[in-house]
Write a structure and sequence with these properties.
Two copies of one chain form a homodimer. By secondary structure, chain A is α/β, with parallel strands linked by helices. Chain A folds into three domains: about 170 residues, MoaB/Mog-like domain (Molybdenum Cofactor Biosythetic Enzyme, Chain A), CATH 3.40.980; about 80 residues, Alpha-Beta Plaits; about 150 residues, CinA-like (Maf protein, Alpha-Beta Complex), CATH 3.90.950. Helix content of chain A is about 40%, strand content about 25%. Chain A has 13 helices and 17 strands. Chain A has a six-stranded mixed β-sheet, with helices on both faces. In chain A, β6 and β7 form a beta hairpin. Chain A starts with a strand and ends with a helix. In chain A, about 45% of the residues are buried. Chains A and B meet through α1, β2, α2, α9 and β14 of A and α1, β2, α2, α9 and β14 of B. β2 of chain A pairs antiparallel with β2 of chain B, so a sheet runs across the interface.
């Protein structure tokens, strides 16, 4: 079956706000084998919304409306869907009573308008909303000779997600043919999207029955694999076959096949090896420490870090000799190694990491351009250092790549 | 005038990827006084896309198609728009020659398919794409008696943005009536959305001619104001009046009216006062340092930071007495103050900041629950400390709020 997702709200047509519920819904629908064919966004406007509802009824089997179920004059989803369906609306006295009771409990008089939330489209089942006040609605039946499922959900994500899982999923399961779907996510570190896709396309291109989506960003490429087959085993087999071929191609660039982030994987390895880590960061300014400590339980392996922006601090916290900085510059192989070794010794960690570079946009020179980064890893038996030249121009991106480079060096050290 | 934005690409109908170009386009269109009335997402499917194009032609004056202009069989935007318009397509020999030349330069034979990028809808002006290979198209004229502007843009953001600014904007300016629009953004720190809106709604509610959008997240509430009037002066006056009333209400919680982030504002103040800063972080794990150093030029005021997760490190880097930790616990007012004072002294900074808390989800106790955070600020003449209890459950959110609390304390100290 196929679906259309419609987000309602004028704020979703501003430059500041974007519908994200549709990602959650798409994930849930895909898991059942339902494909999303259209997504629409429309404002709180009767004419426009009714038109969008009519269009959706003509082209999708499952139609999900999100938002516009509140008590204000702007909340017109109920009326517009009823009009598009050509059916009346009735006010449900049970819901009205509940609304009054809820306000009475808070010792507040209910504003007249709130009764609008009790308006039910003729033929709809009401879906309760324990997380908020606007109930949802479920309508199933023939419209102009076609079988249609129409679902009205509240807009706030925690209300929508709860209602979808508790009310909508059980109803959908009864009518959607049971699908045999397998999925897998391969994540690779430090590859560019174009390079990764050039190498991967000839491989996944052979698997016409596995859908492959390539996502890239901030020093990471992800392959999302998805197969639909006659049996679950068959679907799983196809996904696993393709995954194995991709792992052969990308070797140890693949850091996770179970959805984990690079910092999670690094955390697993550190714990497994009973190793500890300490980091000294210049250009990344705390980003590496922040990523390592974003994992709950990281206190078991993360000892500490120093953000050493000025030269004095490099000496103060990591014992980098001032003469070394004077001779080679703060952005140099030597200083990166001294940072890694210094912080390792100070914190008595198994692994010490040092990062120094030019994040820009200013501060670059011909010899040391913006984007130049040194990452060093100190451990037994010796210290390694890597020089990277990232494209200049985007401070945030250079910092992300540098932290990613460090995390991947730690991972490879621990494999 | 009004507009519809259509994003094309099956990957935009997966749970992993979302159109973001429409936010850029909406911002640019709104600046001209053009309102976006509909947004649509559709896959690389001839029938569905042609249908979407027909619907858009029936309801919007300016229609922007994004994506599907590449060389592969999946790139069907040109054909589908032509079909919806009921006009033929021709292959432009100049573009074909350019494509051949580009491939020849790289000494690569051009794949046959690539010539598809030279297909031009009858009546269209071709818009060059110096950032990529797929040119854009501009069509203006009557369709079924209505004036329509149809714009085809490439999907990759840097290609789309460049083409919009260099090719589309100058053309639109000739046909869109000159609008008198003023905008302003007020940002407030450390307010909850519901509390902020409760106080703000009675104020902005009076200004029916100023559109107010309230955005909230991670310890910050933003009021986006926008007025359209007969003259630019009038629009500006209305926006400024409302902004002044909101500033009266929220007083010094308002940290910026020019779009700046809290870390930018803190950076301005530190530079203005010729002050320097050093930070010692436990539960935020480097997030505060990372935010402070995300600003280009922060090396002028940011001296250094210590991420002191373990008790030993608190002593090693910030001279926190081990007995103090034993007596009061690592998460305590005393330790937060000692961290702030210790890092200030070590780095010889004007301001020292110390953060300690329980980010969770594990590690909380009855006395020291998840969400409890102490932030201390050491400077002349004395050290201040604040205790906050953030809602437990979301590690990322607690860390964000704690860093936000610290930044806002620095700001208030420097005002």
């Amino acid at each position: 079956m196929n679906a259309e997702i419609i987000a309602i709200g004028s704020e979703l047509l501003t430059p500041f706000k974007q519908d994200t519920n549709s990602l959650f819904l798409t994930s849930r629908l895909n898991d059942m084998g339902v494909e999303v064919k259209f997504k629409s966004v429309v404002g709180d406007d009767r004419q426009n919304l009714t038109g969008v509802a009519r269009t959706a009824l003509s082209r999708a089997e499952i139609i999900i409306f999100m938002g516009g179920l509140g008590p204000t004059e702007d909340d017109v989803t109920r009326e517009c869907v009823a009009e598009a369906l050509g059916v009346p609306i009735r006010r449900d006295s049970d819901i009205v009573a509940e609304l009054y009771a809820r306000f009475a409990q808070r010792r507040v008089k209910m504003p007249e308008n709130n009764a609008r939330q009790a308006d039910v489209i003729d033929g709809a089942e009401v879906m309760p909303n324990p997380k908020g006040s606007a109930p949802g609605q479920w309508i199933e039946g023939l419209h102009l000779g076609e079988h249609r499922v129409i679902i009205l959900l509240p807009g706030p994500p925690f209300e929508l997600e709860h209602m979808f899982d508790t009310e909508v999923l059980p109803r959908l399961r009864k009518i959607v043919p049971k699908a045999k779907i397998a999925t897998m996510v391969l994540k690779c570190a430090l590859l560019s999207e174009s390079m990764a896709d050039e190498r991967a396309a000839p491989i996944y291109g052979k698997y016409t029955d596995v859908e492959t989506t390539v996502l890239a960003g901030a020093g990471q490429v992800e392959f999302h694999l998805r197969a639909v087959a006659e049996t679950l085993e068959e679907a799983q087999e196809r996904v696993e076959q393709l995954a194995a071929e991709l792992e052969d191609e990308f070797q140890d660039a693949v850091f996770s096949t179970g959805g984990e982030s690079l910092e999670q994987i690094v955390g697993y390895y550190l714990q497994m090896r009973s190793a500890t880590i300490a980091v000294a960061e210049s250009c990344t300014g705390g980003l590496l420490a922040q990523r390592l400590t974003s994992i709950s339980g990281s206190s078991r392996y993360f000892l500490g870090g120093a953000v050493v922006y000025s030269n004095d601090m490099k000496t103060l916290f990591c014992d980098v000799p001032p003469l070394m900085i004077a001779e080679h510059g703060a952005v140099s192989k030597q200083v990166a190694m001294a940072l890694a070794e210094g912080i390792r010794k100070r914190c008595r960690a198994t692994i010490g990491v040092g990062i120094t570079g030019v994040a820009g946009p200013t501060g670059g020179t011909e010899e040391k351009p913006v984007g130049l980064v040194y990452v060093a890893l100190a451990s037994q038996p010796r210290t390694e250092v890597v020089e990277r030249k990232f494209p200049p121009g985007d401070r945030k991106r250079i910092r992300m790549w540098a932290a990613q480079q460090a995390l991947d060096m730690i991972r490879k050290k621990l494999i």
